[in-house]
Amino acid sequence: MKYTLIDSLDNFEKLAPAWNDLLAESIANIPFLRHEYLLAWWDSLGGGEWEKGELAIITAHRDDELIGIAPLFSSTYEDRKSLLFLGSIEISDFLDFIVREDDLNEFIHGLLDFLDSHATLTWSALDLQNLVKDSPSLKILQTESASRGWDFAESTLQPAPFVTLPGDFNEYLAGIKKKQRHEIRRKMRRAAADEREVNWYIVDDKEKLDKNIEVFFQLMTNDPKKQAFLTAIMKSQMKATIHAAFDAGWLQLAFLEVDGEKAASYLNFDYGNRIWVYNSGLDMKFRDLSPGWVLLGYLLEWANENRRAEFDFMRGDEPYKYRFGGVDRFVMRAKITR
After folding, report:
1. CATH number, domain with residue 9
2. Which string of DSSP letters, residue by residue, matches 171-196?
3. What pLDDT does 119 receive?
4. Which of 60, 227, 273, 289 sits at 20 to 30 Å (Cα–Cα) from 149?
5. 25-52: b or e for each residue (b if 16 or more CB lie within 10 Å)?
């Protein structure tokens, strides 16, 4: 394989078609590795999470074929000059290399050789966060580090609950705890029978997208923690991500309305036959209807009807995720120092 350092925005942008084509066949075909997502992330350095950073994307070609991508950037982290995944750390739930499984061993071996010998790329830590625990990259990174005498440390960051969907909403409900099953059904029936008009929808009109984004932000800010999170630059980042996802066809921005007023919203990604639950907002004025639970119930019903295989609640151990049947997978950190 021939390895190349991509350190300019122009060259990063030019990779888009080949990048997404390879991602579709890679070990981790996830929305946070889509070219349009990472390009939006880079534009604001994660909504202001990083003060400084330099692109350090490494591509590997065999003849003229793109074989692998290490989507990296360079910055100072924990007082070390580090290489990290683009998308690190806070707003991209899962990250990994972009490479087919059959090429992974050779790709990582050559990548570490390239990083070790490159004349101008300076680093003391390769700090790879938000890898899913069952990623095949982890074991190979550990083996390759040991062969070079480098230190390898693996640690668990967070749980990321998910639900496997059977394709039938009632069958899904039958698979979760009886108390929670009854509670979900009760709340959905109560909303359907309410004297107010209760309905829900997924945004599908480009011309109405910006208006819906602003309403979504308003609902988010009803939570003090989310209000603090939504700085001006973070709003810009999220808006860019939402537009990128809509244009590429994998946005699921959903609202529950009560008499025409927005009561709850979920910002999800509908990607790779899976629903990825990214963020949410709620108007507590309608708490008597439990609008967040009701909308989540409708979304799970939709996902089953539309044959999505998983409903991924992603990082965090919020109790509602387990009440809806979430089972933990874990997100890891692999840190290599030389």
Report:
1. 3.40.630.30
2. HHHHTS-HHHHHHHHHHHHHHHH-SS
3. 86
4. 60
5. ebbbbbbbbbbbbbbbbbebbbbebbee
